[in-house]
Amino acid sequence: MGKQNFYRQLSLEEAQDAEQNYExxxxxxxxxxxxxxLLNHIKRIPFDNIIENHLQYVNAVYKTExxxxxxxxxxxxxxxxxxxTIYSFRFANACHPxxxxxxxxxxxxxxxxxxxxxHEYNGWYKYVGQYLLAEIGYYLNIRKVVQSQIPNKTKLFIxxxxxxxxxxxxxxxxxxxxxxxxxxxxxxRRID
Length: 192
Fold this sequence. Notes:
Blueprint: H1 3-42, H2 47-55, E1 60-67, E2 70-81, E3 84-92, H3 97-102, E4 111-113, E5 125-127, H4 131-140, H5 142-146, E6 154-159, E7 164-170, E8 175-182
Parallel strand pairs: 3-8
Antiparallel strand pairs: 1-2, 2-3, 4-5, 5-6, 6-7, 7-8
Helix pairs in contact: 1-4
């Protein structure tokens, strides 16, 4: 390897290390919001069982889950949009509203502003990092749900103003699993 190529490679490695270290500054904050405040409460939800035994036959299911000595209502439904089957799970948001306001999205390099409304709201940011997304699928054992061995294609969206988080698991061309955390009781979309 020539001297010039060596310095170019060294510069590339330093840039990658700097990016990873910058990402790590906020990693604990992101991890706390997602895993400790939200996903911990739904880890025991039998997503695969609900999809296989309920959503294959009916369009909407209403269930409860006990977490932190509280009974939480959640909904699950199945939609067909442009040839794709979408299984949606909606949970009440367990986070205190102030937690969303302190969460860094606007100036962070791992969040990209979404210019089109999602769920009829503006102000969404998409998480563009990778490591945390892989951890979410592993934590909830989503591979078991979709029974797929293809690489993880998870997307995470956050809307601080509306106190909402959406997580999408896209494992095939025809199927998506969506998990949403929203204020109050989960909203149910009417299928007309």
